[in-house]
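Morning!

This is the sequence you dropped in the shared folder:
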Amino acid sequence: MLSFTKMHSLGNDFVMLDGVRRALVLDSQLITRIADRHTGIGCDQVIVAQPASGGADFFMRIYNADGSESGQCGNGGRCFGRFLIEQGLTDQRQITVQTITTEMALQVADDWQVTANMGEPVFNPAAIPFRAAQQAAEYTLAADGESVRIAAVSMGNPHAVLQVDDVDHAPVERLGPLLECHGDFPQRANIGFAQVLGRDTIRLRVWERGVGETRACGSGACAAAAVCRQQGLVDDNVSVTLPGGSVKITWPGYGDLAMTGPAITVFTGQLPEDAL
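The structure's back. Tokens below.
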């Protein structure tokens, strides 16, 4: 039997697994079966807690619903903090977490609001990675017979951010998959459609790499806030509202970016071996 915890933040949902007490062997086919909403548990990402190397407290391995591996997940990271405490893996409220691409510090409040230090946004194209001759505030990509203006940034995973006038009518389903797999993003990308409502408010929809549109994307919210702050459209503190709810982002335009939002445990269960 495989024990699991189902969690979500703003409707961005996860299956959490304990790979600390028991070493888990997971391949892409098993991940897709777990993530399947009809025949599995159902989730946007599968997240596995593992022992860390170096100075971090834990390693967070992140799998997308299609079985591919991701280097960052802001909402998942905040849920990860609550999962570690509820599972008795730590009694600390300040936790350092390592992923395959980055490291983040979590601070878990008593009401399960979790602040994640997401590190510094990276705009250098080579580090995103994004193919461009030189760094710029915006780039033009060809998609579906039109020229699309994007900003590119990494929050430990690659993001494109598009400015839109009305996020409710943004071409998420049309442009999302095309830009996700655009040749200038060699590792694919998460695609955010951002509508700036004021100096402290952004509305956002995100087409997530390997998943599709989700109700919320934490690293996508961070990417949108960082891009809008860099372009002078918002202030240091901004609320990013996604279909599933809002997170608070703090970034003064340099150094590390912080995101605060809820982490919710939905239920726990066990998968029998014949379901794996």
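Headline: The domain at 2-119+262-275 is CATH 3.10.310.10 (Diaminopimelate Epimerase; Chain A, domain 1).

More detail when I'm at my desk.
O.
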